[in-house]
Write a structure and sequence with these properties.
The chain is mostly helical. The protein has a domain at 30-97. The protein is 88% helix and 0% strand. It starts with 6 loop residues before the first helix and ends with a helix. The relative contact order is 0.03.
């Protein structure tokens, strides 16, 4: 069976609830309480440590990027040097091949001239 509270009972219950809320609010420590100050200092230290770690990560990332760029530049320089060496080797090979072909052509011409001279000598020595 339900009891019907009177207006006065409801008003008293409301006032008691407000009083409990005020008591809880008053029970909170003030801003200059040592416990509050200690928590604030701890939070500040955690925030500073977090910021220091963020800065360290950013510096590490920047250093890694610089190292990667330097490595890429060194690789590009090595690739360019290798390409230049390959081109020079190809040029030297082509020059040697041309010299060999020229020497071979001169040798063939000398043999041909020798045969021609021998044929002329056989024909009458003119």
């Amino acid at each position: 069976m339900k009891t019907i509270d009177s207006f006065e009972d409801r008003r008293q219950n409301s006032a008691a609830a407000k009083a409990r809320l005020l008591d809880r609010l008053k029970a909170r420590p003030s801003k200059d309480d040592p416990a509050v100050l200690a928590r604030m200092a701890e939070r500040k230290a955690v925030e500073e440590a977090r910021e220091a770690r963020r800065i360290a990560r950013a510096e590490a990332a920047a250093a890694a990027e610089i190292a990667a760029r330097e490595a890429a530049a060194a690789k590009a320089a090595a690739d360019a040097a290798a390409e230049i060496a390959a081109r020079e080797a190809a040029i030297a090979h082509a020059a040697a091949e041309a010299e060999r072909a020229t020497a071979e052509a001169a040798a063939q011409k000398a043999k041909r001239d020798e045969r021609y001279a021998a044929r002329k000598m056989r024909a009458g020595g003119r």
